[in-house]
Amino acid sequence: xxxxxxxxxxxxxxxxxxxxxxxxxxxxxxxxxxxxxxxxxxxxxxxxxxxxxxxxxxxxxxxxxxxxxxxxxxxxxxxxxxxxxxxxxxxxxxxxxxxxxxxxxxxxxxxxxxxxxxxxxxxxxxxxxxxxxxxxxxxxxxxxxxxxxxxxxxxxxxxxxxxxxxxxxxxxxxxxxxxxxxxxxxxxxxxxxxxxxxxxxxxxxxxxxxxxxxxxxxxxxxxxxxxxxxxxxxxxxxxxxxxxxxxxxxxxxxxxxxxxxxxxxxxxxxxxxxxxxxxxxxxxxxxxxxxxxxxxxx
Length: 298
Hints:
Keywords: DNA-binding, Transcription, Transcription regulation. The protein is elongated. It folds into 3 domains: about 5-80, Orthogonal Bundle (Arc Repressor Mutant, subunit A), CATH 1.10.10; about 95-160 and about 260-295, D-Maltodextrin-Binding Protein, domain 2, CATH 3.40.190; about 160-260, Periplasmic binding protein-like II (D-Maltodextrin-Binding Protein, domain 2, 3-Layer(aba) Sandwich), CATH 3.40.190.10. By secondary structure, the chain is of the alpha/beta class. Helix 1 crosses helix 3 (about 30-45) and helix 1 (about 5-15) packs across helix 4. The chain has 10 helices and 11 strands.
């Protein structure tokens, strides 16, 4: 039986990323080193684990069989580490959070900075991507989402609700016809998501308002916010982002208001990991407080 866990860890990274370069980034190793280690593993097992093509590395039947066993070993390793006694009150090591870019830009920096102040030996990584994170592939230790997943071996915790309103810059409003009701929006340039790139139904803000044409569209909240701030048009903005945009104000507040929620998603295997649980608690508490603070300033 092959028992070199370090080689199995590299094998898992290649299987999940499907390229040596992707695995190298995850492992912080040179891709050539990862390739040599995979050749050594295949030689030790006397089996071809990957079919190599210009598109990347895909698992052979032997590789798929090893993947199942390697993931079992990974879960056992994580469980064993989680059960080690905690000898310090401070968090250490590295924790990676996946998040949609709205929360990643306007909430997580200050919340994680506060956690870092209390835990100076902890390395926190925020991965901001406009898509759902795959925790089973270990893309992150935990993720923030705007809807609760219903499939997979995941633990889901609602963190807090947040609010969104239409917003525009004072310069834009001064240069264009007044907006007194939702019907007036047809005379204005709208900012929003690219319709076919909305990765979560909860993000279809303009669709909820019956708006189908979006002249200025991006898959990034940050780009949308900058368009609004620069006077590009009218868009839906998180209330917690408004304090970061001088010269921008909410409009039609009493007529149009959206409520959404953030959820913290963790892999089931990490439930007994006290380190990740302590971080998750600090993260959730900090996010609730920061949303409340910023919405109070909007």
